[in-house]
Design brief:
mainly alpha; two-stranded antiparallel ribbon; 15 helices
Length: 373
């Protein structure tokens, strides 16, 4: 009976984590896209590709403070319970049963993978519709299945292969639809898709490493995310200071538009963080949305890594991509006839096509049922 009760609890917890991950992941992408569409001081906020990644790491680092609080409460509880026990005997048992502790190098590696993945993803999001961006993130499932087979010896069956083939087919058809539109920005969008696909390799590797260490080593999930955020902030803040002093005025127009930050004085830097803060101060909605983004990142990572621990990295990726239809519906409903003068991003307003709607629904069904969550 206790075993059955435990299984029911785990199943209930799994569904709660799935719901929370779809919710926080949707908020994450929606807020990110809205912030980057804001036009302040003669420039779109999306020129700050590099700056925004530091906000992501700050969100992850907040998990560390939650971990410290939980550890403190747990330690006090254990001390109260062990007052009448033999402390030496308790320590001896603990030493025998404790799994190995990971080195800090692992957190540095996963932080770097997270950094590379986030940087490439943000560049991809700036030139794609949010729903299309989320769909192409589905390729992460293919990479994670390959890495899971290689390093975790996961078993995949016919339904899994069918699911992967369906995803490739679906994403390929969406690429053809975009090509047939004859969009003048098709070349830029193609580059964005390529960057996005590369980012998924880094993200998949990070997820597999997390699964290996969360399940086989003595490390709390929140500690893992918190340390990733800590090392990410340290590394990236140093990079932002360097980027602030790299001028792009002599670079080609293509490079300036793609990777540089142009301020209101038409000066180009690899990243102008000072200008980003000025824009946030000028338009308080950006500041509010940035705080919301940081909170959503914190919750998203807490839920995600606990889902990995409870089930697997593959399940985490499958659930993560189920949010696509909610993102698409949000921008279709709330930005259908949007004439907001602060929104200058032509990739924020979604269009409704029945074929698209059916495709999104089928895509979600493939992820949830064929891949057998």
């Amino acid at each position: 009976m206790p075993v059955e009760g435990n299984q029911k609890f785990n199943k209930c917890l799994l569904y709660i984590l799935i719901f929370c991950m779809i919710l926080t992941g949707s908020i994450n992408t929606i807020v990110n896209k809205i912030i980057h569409s804001k036009y302040v001081l003669d420039q779109l906020f999306k020129v700050h590709h590099w700056f925004f990644i530091d906000a992501m790491f700050l969100g992850e680092f907040i998990s560390f403070f939650i971990y410290i609080y939980i550890s403190y409460k747990k330690k006090n509880k254990e001390q109260n319970e062990n007052q009448n026990n033999n402390e030496n005997q308790g320590e001896e048992v603990k030493k025998k049963s404790s799994p190995p502790i990971p080195t800090n190098l692992i957190f540095v590696i996963t932080s770097l993978l997270d950094l590379l993945s986030a940087a490439l993803s943000i560049f991809g999001l700036s030139s794609l519709y949010s729903s299309i961006y989320q769909m192409f993130r589905g390729f992460q499932l293919i990479f994670i299945c390959l890495l899971g087979k290689l390093f975790l010896k996961n078993q995949y069956y016919r339904q899994h292969i069918l699911g992967i083939c369906s995803i490739i087919l679906g994403l390929g058809s969406f690429g053809l639809i975009e090509a047939k539109k004859g969009n003048s920005n098709f070349g830029k969008q193609t580059r964005s898709v390529i960057l996005l696909l590369i980012s998924q390799i880094f993200s998949s590797t990070q997820n597999i490493i997390q699964e290996i260490y969360i399940k086989n080593y003595d490390v709390h999930p929140l500690k893992f995310v918190g340390y990733e955020g800590l090392y990410g902030i340290i590394i990236y803040t140093i990079l932002l200071i360097i980027f602030q002093n790299i001028y792009c005025d002599s670079w080609t127009q293509l490079l300036k538009e793609e990777i540089c930050s142009i301020n209101d004085k038409e000066k180009s830097y690899l990243e102008d963080s000072i200008f980003a803060f000025r824009q946030m101060w000028k338009n308080k909605s950006i500041l509010f949305l940035s705080i919301l983004y940081i909170i959503s990142i914190t919750l998203y990572n807490i839920v995600g890594i606990n889902l990995t621990k409870l089930d697997s990295a593959t399940t985490r990726v499958v659930v993560d991509n189920a949010r696509i239809i909610f993102i698409w519906l949000f921008f279709f409903i709330f930005y259908k006839d949007s004439n907001d003068e602060n929104n200058h991003d032509d990739k924020i307003q979604e269009t409704f096509l029945w074929s698209q709607f059916i495709g999104y629904c089928f895509y979600s069904l493939v992820l949830q049922y064929i891949m057998k969550l």
